[in-house]
Amino acid sequence: MGDFRASKSGFLLVVELDDGNVAGFVHVIEFNGICHLEQLSVAPQHARQGWGRTLVEAAKHHARNRVYLQISLRTYVDIPWNAPFYATAGFIEEEPTTSFHRSLIAIEAELGVDRYGRRVHMVAPLAAPRPWEDPSAGM
Fold it and tell me: CA nearest 63: which of 94, 99, 27?
């Protein structure tokens, strides 16, 4: 699965611990001028230690440095570590307006993902990079 994610257009950020284990990752897709947080995952044994928030903030920073004005995602509304968590990270619920985002809804419907609960489209605005920041600097 890691090779598949790494092969997609976008970026993959990983929290690697001092012992070499991975605590979590965030995968962001870049498509046709859109920056979309596709997957955030933290290993259960590393949950509730701030890694998820660190990864989301790193993804937002990386996207901003790539000169995106916003980053989107799709998630479940009623699961506390989904939409409510993302809301605390600056994401707001919006109607999807692009064909890319509408295609995600169609894929979710085809896969029956909504049987687990209502899903929403969320977007976080990103400030423009400051002139003294190097957009090529990695996280």
Answer: 27
Q: Which amino acid is at 9?
A: S
- Domain range for 121 is 2-125
Look-up: residue for tokens 């509408």?
102
Tokens of 28: 């962001």
Determine the straight-line distance between the first and last CA of the chain, rounded to whole angstroms: 22
Q: Taking 50 as the threshold, does the pLDDT of residue 84 lie above it?
A: yes
**Does residue 130 belong to any structural domain of this protein?**
no
Predicted structure pTM score: 0.83
Q: Is the residue at 138 inside a domain?
A: no
Report the pLDDT value the prediction gives residue 1, as an integer from 0 to 100: 42
DSSP secondary structure letters along 54-113? HHHHHHHHHHHHTT-SEEEEEEESS-TTTHHHHHHTT-EE----SHHHHHHHHHHHHHTG
Q: Which two tokens stand for residue 33?
A: 């001028």
User: Is the pLDDT confidence value at 44 over 90?
Assistant: yes
Query: In CATH, what number is assigned to the domain containing residue 25?
Result: 3.40.630.30
Mean pLDDT computed over 67-92: 93
